[in-house]
DNA sequence: ATGTTAATTAACATATTTGCTAAATACAAG
DNA sequence: CTTGTATTTAGCAAATATGTTAATTAACAT
């Protein structure tokens, strides 16, 4: 599985996107990240592992707790793929628009 | 499943990203899209359905063939989510950098 | 009408994902 | 060193994803 596979796959789950949104506001422990969800500790742990494997977050132990923070590098990869093709897409769209306008 | 779920899930498969990359160069029939892959017709058909359900492409019949083209609107949604949070991420990263530089 | 090409749907096998509970590990505190 | 808190790993069940072959539908051409 390449980087884009794991990154987009990780982003496809709403719980994981919510976790990222939370982490955008600042780092948080696993327990803190779990609090808003009606979901077991192992379930959150797995979501975090998926995000970590996708290089979207990093975890470091701080005493008894594991602190999670965003990993901007991983997200950059995902954005770049979309942004790259967006250029083509918009170009195609523009051509279509031009075509439609010139047609009558 | 909401729009972002289906969009990112669709993007997580390399075959589907390759299909999108191909369509960025211009519309193509199902058969043409299939050609580069060692994969059955039903398999391609399903990939295209996933992309269509995610609003990333559109298909229209043209005589005997189905012509596929990109749907820029769907991609825009996916990009916007990433771009929105990228702002936070970069900000966090900047704060971290500042912190690390000021520390010594 | 019949055969051919393009593409989808049906039916099935296998692998992955997600969630749960119970058990294990890591650290802190008394 | 025993207990409590934070988190992960193990084991299991249900749902989802992906690919295959066989059968079906749509459009075209003879």
Please outline the helices and strands.
Two copies of one chain form a homodimer.
Chain A: H1 3-11, H2 14-23, E1 28-29, H3 30-34, H4 41-53, E2 57-62, E3 65-70, H5 72-102
Antiparallel strand pairs in A: 1-3, 2-3
Helix pairs in contact in A: 1-4, 1-5
The structure holds a DNA duplex (30 and 30 nucleotides).
Description:
- The structure is a homodimer of 104-residue chains.
- Chain A is α+β, with helices and mostly antiparallel strands and 104 residues long.
- The first copy, chain A, has one domain (3-102): Orthogonal Bundle (Arc Repressor Mutant, subunit A), CATH 1.10.10.
- Chain A is built from 5 helices and 3 strands, in the order ααβααββα.
- Chain A has helices at residues 3-11, 14-23, 30-34, 41-53, 72-102; strands at residues 28-29, 57-62, 65-70.
- A 3-stranded antiparallel sheet of chain A has the order 1-3-2.
- In chain A, helix 1 (3-11) runs antiparallel to helix 4 (41-53) and helix 1 (3-11) packs across helix 5.
- The longest helix of chain A is centred in the last third of the chain and has 31 residues, at 72-102.
- The mean pLDDT of chain A is 88.
- At the A-B interface, helix 1, helix 2 and helix 5 of A face helix 1, helix 2 and helix 5 of B.
- The structure holds a DNA duplex (30 and 30 nucleotides).
